[in-house]
Amino acid sequence: MTDGQLILIIDDEPQIRRLLLLTLEGSGLKVTQASTGEEGTIRVRTDNPDLVILDLGLPDMDGIEVLKEIRRTSRLPVIILSVRSSESDIITALDLGADDYLTKPFRTGELLARVRACLRKQQAVEDQEPVSFGTLTIDLAARTVEKKGVPVKLTAIEYSLLALFVRNAGRVLTHKFILEAVWGMAYNEETQYTRVHVGHLRKKIEDDPANPTLIQTESGIGYRFTKL
Length: 228
Known about the structure:
A hairpin with a 2-residue loop joins strand 6 and strand 7 (136-139). This protein starts with 5 loop residues before the first strand and ends with a strand. The chain has two domains: 6-122, 3-Layer(aba) Sandwich (Rossmann fold), CATH 3.40.50; 131-225, Winged helix-like DNA-binding domain superfamily/Winged helix DNA-binding domain (Arc Repressor Mutant, subunit A, Orthogonal Bundle). It contains eight helices and twelve strands. The protein has a five-stranded parallel beta sheet, sandwiched between helices. The chain is of the alpha/beta class. Helix 2 runs parallel beside helix 3 (63-73).
């Protein structure tokens, strides 16, 4: 995490904004704030933040609408921070492009860890440069995968899955998001597709497929590709 990176807080609760301000600035980050959805969408454009922490219960509009507005023009990292804790709310936000989801009340240490993870991902090497995860090396430009220096042969679907995971490393991907990205909109309910093909992919890239360390299962939601 680089000192001076700017975090935009969009939350209508003054005490939450103050807590976040003290926590983030205490870690060397800069902070800008908005108390409404409309103000938040304006600050996204004018302040050019590095990451957004977004509440869903805003006074003028639902935070989901703010997320949609951000995603129309930007891949800016967004962490949802909300009292809403139902699986449907979490899945909806992640499907619409949120990078992470944390419920209130929250632990400041965990929030900082998730902020750091999102900022690291944003600063990661570009697709044209090979990336390594432990003993696994992926060159997305050349479409090659090696494990301990030995080429790994993947099917077209397996490669598409892996590329999707790598480009979204650290982010929770829902079954629906994966299905639409790899198979298309018509397959967004076929969750068995992801389970079967993720299983095949794990056998080829994990040291111990029965206890995966790269492709982590997020129970009831989807998967997260985790850096070692």
